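On clarity, I found the account of how folds are encoded harder to follow than it need be. Since the whole study asks how a given chain folds, the encoding of that fold should be made plain. For the editor and my fellow referees, an illustration may be useful. An entry of this sort, consisting of the sequence and the corresponding backbone structure tokens, reads as follows:

:::
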Amino acid sequence: MRRYGKNPDEDDVRVRPNRKGNRPRTNIRPKHEDAAEGMVLTIDRGRLTCLVEDRTVIAMKARELGRKSVAVGDRVAVVGDLSGDEGTLARIVRIGERRSVLRRTADDTDPFERVIVANADQLAIVTALADPEPRPRLIDRCLVAAYDAGLEPLLVLTKSDLAPADELLETYGPLGLAHIVTSREELAAGAAAEIVRERLAGRTTVFVGHSGVGKTTLVNSVVPGERQRATGRVNAVTGRGRHTTTSALALPLPDGDGWVIDTPGLRSFGLHHVDPSRVILAFPDLEPGTADCPRACGHDEPDCALDRWVAEGHADPERLLSLRRLLRSRERRAGD
């Protein structure tokens, strides 16, 4: 060890240079009080398109946000170059509190949640009545996700000129779902768009459905003049559609009376994240009957108190059957 004597001066003390710069470390982050408010419209490879006032701005997530994810529909605070000119890049420095979050997992064994959309009010579940055939289990899973997120579900049935809607509507009748039935002729003539638009007014609505059901075609007709998205055809051999939408995109309804968010076609909808106790909240006629359920009851067990609740005449038995069918869908593959 080097000795400096009893009275060392500054020339005797060796000072190591600061190789990381002379700026001291600090945990204090800038407040960005001048940040502009924006809404995330779409996300592509780490670049986020945001609506800031009357223009779209390309931004990236600021480092101080860490691992916080940003989703389409998020209200965010943006700083930097907000001109929206080509080649410019701003930064998202804050994410606003979300009033709702629609999420899914890759499958029922995957614990990692993927946020699809934030701040939506309504989930439009689009399915064709034929070409391709309806997939009720996927509809069930979307309904569970909607109830879990606190979104109002809307069932949109397309291609009614190829098959009747009665049987499918009867299946979901006990749920009291709002629904729309359209044909290809109505869609081509613009009549379907007007009917659907009435259900979307004043809301932020997410459109989901498997590929080939006409979801994006319907979105393009509801929001004319905006960024038209590519549409695909159903494979004649497999009966499945081809993915043409690759990322979620928020589009404003005419006259600014709400938003439509188109999402990529689904082939699976994992529900690993869903707690049955949240799904029951969408059944206000059944929820009081869970007061005597055993701890951690999945509401589809031999000692579930809902059986007695229904037997005593407090609720329609068909409602309990519908709830249990939805809960069981968490344990089935979406493509079944």
